[in-house]
Design goal:
Elements (H helix, E strand, L loop, with lengths): L6 H4 L5 H16 L7 H7 E3 L11 H7 L3 E3 L9 E6 L14 H18 L4 E6 L3 E8 L4 H10 L9 H11 L5 E6 L5 H13 L3 E8 L1 H5 L5 E5 L6 E5 H25 L3 E6 L4 H15 L1
Parallel strand pairs: 3-4, 3-6, 6-7, 7-10
Antiparallel strand pairs: 1-2, 4-5, 8-9
Helix pairs in contact: 2-5, 2-11, 5-6, 7-8
């Protein structure tokens, strides 16, 4: 199933809605035979016990299995409002092999999550940003809204410079209802400032997932000899000896990701490190495993 959900395979399918449907169906088929079977049901019907909850509501059968206190969620608690927050900066349009760009990968994953949430009748909204936040679609669960989200995602083009920090601060100020905020970005900015802005979302009571999308070449650095690199947003050009620079670069990428991973973990934010070679079922499984570990 993984091969059929590889980015190079899905790229042959031009319609985003068909890509998303294929990803979700393949993922759900794989879930039935994986250690995560039944996890989504448990997650949707239970929540962690919080101080002030009636102890009578604790599900002791779940406690016996997990050694953690859960309470059954009431019907009113099971609906989750989600917001896709998409980075539209020019750097997201990068692809070394001219295959699926970071932005195309992010939109396919976002569309798949929209499809999953719509199946559960959860409202989903769409926000985008470059130098500032732009509200595109409010969160809705009505019939036809899935098509609206797919059409909006399909029409977007990555271009221009970005200000992730300012856009996340705007997001935190704009969202009044506690929501699930799903950020899709290459996170090319100051990690300290970006993490601080993510902290504002958590402080506002929002659940946050960071999908850190990088091109496979940015992660693995498959270059040799003199190579010229251009910053897609500033236009700055530098020439480096890739062979001599590789080890230092790879250490820097690992530290870059680790900074976000540790910073997010401290704030109970889910951080999912991805690159454009990762099959989409694996990307969704990485996310669910983190959610399972945290809850």
């Amino acid at each position: 199933m993984t091969q059929s959900l590889a980015p190079e395979t899905l790229q042959k399918i031009k319609r985003l809605d068909l890509r998303a449907r294929m990803v979700v169906r393949g993922f759900l088929q794989g879930l039935h035979s994986s250690p995560l079977q039944g996890f989504s049901v448990q997650f949707s019907e239970h929540r962690r016990y919080n101080r002030g909850d009636d102890p009578k509501l604790i599900d002791w059968l779940v406690y016996a299995k997990t050694d953690k206190h859960y309470v059954k969620r009431f019907e009113a608690e099971t609906n989750l409002t989600g917001y896709l927050v998409m980075d539209l900066s020019k750097s997201m349009g990068f692809s070394e092999r001219q295959s699926m760009t970071k932005f195309e990968y992010a939109t396919c994953l976002a569309a798949s999550l929209t499809y999953l949430m719509t199946m559960q009748k959860d409202p989903v909204g769409l926000l985008t940003f470059r130098d500032k936040l732009r509200a595109v679609l409010p969160a809705r669960s009505r019939r036809g809204h899935l098509g609206d989200v797919m059409a909006a995602l399909s029409s977007m083009t990555p271009d221009g410079t970005t200000d992730i920090t300012a856009s996340l601060i705007q997001t935190a100020a704009m969202l009044r209802q506690k929501s699930l905020v799903m950020l899709f970005s290459d996170l090319l900015g100051d990690p300290g400032e970006i993490l601080s802005a993510l902290g504002r979302l958590r402080h506002g009571g929002h659940d946050v997932i960071v999908f850190h999308v990088m091109d496979e070449a940015e992660v693995h650095f498959p270059y040799d000899g003199p190579v010229e690199f251009e910053d897609p947003e500033s236009g700055e050009v530098v020439t480096v000896d890739a062979t001599g620079f590789r080890d230092e670069y790879l250490r820097g990428v690992e530290a870059f990701r680790q900074t976000y991973s540790e910073g997010c973990n401290k704030m109970r934010i889910d951080y999912v490190a991805l690159d454009t070679s990762m099959p989409f079922d694996k990307a969704l499984t990485e996310y669910l495993q983190q959610r399972q570990a945290r809850f």
